[in-house]
Amino acid sequence: MKIITSLKILASSALLLCLTTPVHATEDPSRPNVLAIWGDDIGMDNLSAYTMGQAGHWTPNIDRIAKEGAIFTDYYAENSCTAGRSAFIHGQHPMRTGLTKVGLPGAKEGAREDDVTLAGLLKPLGYMTAQFGKNHFGDQDSHLPTNHGFDEFYGNLYHLNAEEEPEHEDYNRFMTAEMKKRFSPRGVIHSFADGRIEDSGPLTKKRMETADEEFLAATIKFMEKAHKAKKPFFAWFNATRMHIWTHLKDDVKG
């Protein structure tokens, strides 16, 4: 049985858009555009550039990036979503930032004000910066990417099974009104560096089927905006696939 994952299609499309469409070229070669694409719980075996399809997956667009760019076989990686993202964006071991484990709704722990981020370092160089998709740096407004060097953020704050807890059959049986107020997951957040924070609604099981399409569309819109402004961009796209629980549309199942 073969499952064609949305992530591979979406990530490949976004990468190819940046590589093949002149609209996203920066005018200053010393300040190249940066598009970072992250999946979730995807290993080397899921990319046919590494396995030649022996694992049952074919990813021709990503393979093209590998062929025309560089492919790596050795790496160091953190073992949780939060720690891995923290190491990437802060450039520090997660033991220094405290972002070592998955954050949950209602938690006070999260990204700290005095920790430098890659986005914050790029801002003085004239970059427009944004993050889209899964964040994982904390539940509070102070933890949002737009308080840590990003101009814009559109995405979710936790792993998917935390997002769908309100739909669990036991949720309403055991959660009191006060508990729901304190510990219910926030929806898909759209925030900006000027302090605006919009909640676009919960990330339900049904919405999860197309959440990556939402985040991809927002990423492309941001890159186009940066091009029109004649500014280099740093865009960090974080897809939800293939973390549990993965909810797929019928037309991408096979």
TrEMBL record:
<protein>
    <recommendedName>
        <fullName>Sulfatase N-terminal domain-containing protein</fullName>
    </recommendedName>
</protein>
<dbReference type="Pfam" id="PF00884">
    <property type="entry name" value="Sulfatase"/>
</dbReference>
<dbReference type="InterPro" id="IPR017850">
    <property type="entry name" value="Alkaline_phosphatase_core_sf"/>
</dbReference>
<dbReference type="InterPro" id="IPR000917">
    <property type="entry name" value="Sulfatase_N"/>
</dbReference>
<feature type="signal peptide">
    <location>
        <begin position="1"/>
        <end position="25"/>
    </location>
</feature>
<keyword id="KW-0732">Signal</keyword>
<dbReference type="InterPro" id="IPR052701">
    <property type="entry name" value="GAG_Ulvan_Degrading_Sulfatases"/>
</dbReference>
<feature type="domain" description="Sulfatase N-terminal">
    <location>
        <begin position="32"/>
        <end position="245"/>
    </location>
</feature>
